[in-house]
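User: Show me a protein chain along with its predicted structure.
Assistant: Here is one chain, sequence first, then structure tokens.
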Amino acid sequence: MKINHLHKHISITLSILLLSASTLLADKVNPSEENKKLESITIISDNSSNYLNTKKTKIARNSIETEKMASSVQVFNKDFISDFQTNTVDDLITMSSNTVYQGHGRSRNNSYSMRGFGGVSLLRDGLRVEKGIPDPEVFDLESIEVLKGPNSIQFGESQPGGIINLVKKKPQKEFHAEIKLDINSNALFSPKLDIGGPLSENGTLRYRLITTYKNDPGYKNYSNNNKKLFIAPSLAYDLNENNTLTLIAEISDEEKPFDFGSILSKDGVIEVSLKNTITHPDEIADRDQKILGFDFDSTFNNWNSNFKYRNVNYTLDLPKSLAVMAYNYDTNQIKHVYTQQNQDYTENILQYTINSDFKIANIENNLTIGLDYRKQNFKQFTAVDWASAYYLDLKNPKYKLPYPETPNNLTSFGPGVNGVFKTTRYGGFIQDHINASDNLVFSAGLRYDKVKYNDEPTPSSSYTSTKVLPQFGIVYKINQETTIFTNYSESFNPQQSFYKDARGKILKPETGKGYEIGLKQKLLDDNLSFTASIFKIEKENVAMLDNNTANPRDYIASAKRQSQGIEFDLNGELSPGWSIVASYGYTKTKDNKNKEFNGVPKHTANVFTTYKLNNPIFSNVYLGAGAEYLGKKVVSARGLDDITIKAHTIYNASISYKKVSWEANLSVKNLFNKEYVRAASTNIGVAEGSPRTLNASLSYKF
């Protein structure tokens, strides 16, 4: 299914949705009931935005309140997501303290580090999808949850910095519909539609359909626009008062220019114009993703359970591209070689969780038991023409390089990169929160995981890894407003297949240990939430080159890494109509050579606030302002000394008008048009920050 064949389906889809809405609105209701519905919608629309989360989180797979969790948790709710006015989850996720965007992996995936450690797991409704389209649709999200520290207890293998959970919108019993249009100064055009409600009289059967389309030329001189069609239908049915079945589907079809990033100068700034691509402007990647599954929820007096299943299919087709091999700073020339790549990925995910509340010796217990199963099948083909090299002057680019119809010597990367790779994961955990008193809660948990990796091209690289992980925590409520907590938790992460020792064996898994003590404080009559933490994380068995063998590709699992620091997070209302999200993080890192982690800043800070004007003439006008600060960081460079990237601060501003069902927004990102490096791990393939961009949106709810 290609986008150029789907344009006509957009109008068909919109027509069907609007027809459904008309049918629902045409149901026979008496005038008083209709008035009640209209009045309810009016009241909701007139409310000011409030960034304080009031719902239980889903990221920890238990049913307890956030203040009883012995860990640092931040939640960005739908009010904040709407007001922040962004089309990428990266901008939202990095509002959390010590959480840093680390690049787009050459348009393959988006990476984040948390508390210094990269490879942060990105969950979707509590399920980890290994591969997929890297830019989840923001319009499809209800909230974003961030859980800090090693947390393999609930979800298995992960990095020790933390995890992120994207909570998607679900069917509701009340009819609702929203039409939205986004445009920007780069000629972005993106219509969006969210419609849903009851299909039965009492709402036991209900639906929701979210669809978006994007045509984005971007600010670079690519020959093709980024085009994406997204459709996400869901259907929920209450079998009875205790059990609900929700069917979920998602289709994403995207054609996107293959962005290799940029080049970093020796002084730590962007070497070339932001508009210049460092590969051929005709390159485009075709990415398709389909997700099918269901949630089955059961709720009784003292227990509840959740059973989830997802089938994920993802393909990446990059038929022609020029891979960047090197850059000559003296001649300004970049060296390319011709490549082809295709990926086909299938994953089946099962997750079952049960929570039970009971008393033993008059002591309340909140018990959680979880089981997990994931089976992945990953097929990849990558080839390169090593014999032919192409050179481009990036200071004066003339994109004359023709793609060869038949490469001279197209060579497969061979086993280890190409072939079929299968992974099966089994896991389970048990965790109990023991309420020793009204103010004191102890938590303890234990998890067992087993990972079986089958490398069909290279059977010697196959392995089986098992791990048992503990977790402990204490929460003490000093008073109604103040809670302190401490925890100890662990993580593990199996090594990549190419990390082998001199005997050809895969290295043993990385392991992490985390220690944390923190404070959760309610302020301003519980309208503002403040969280502070002090942490230390140790990671072991990190792969490093084995200098005691003749083979330059032999590794040993002996490197250690450590991070420690502090962080502060604030969200909620400063006063009626004045909402804020703010954070500050400090992370000190060192590896086994006593060097800072590559590409990780010590200091990060973010703030975003909106204020509703009190003047009667402008009573529906909201002013917004924000800033992002990233401290200096050090990155490695090919054939050069380490490069230091200077700290930067980016400012944003917005103005909104909200009245009844209408909402209009105008925002400016990177207000002062600052050129900066957003993420880098080396001097080639740098993720540069976007130049000043004017964004506008108009939405109508009915």
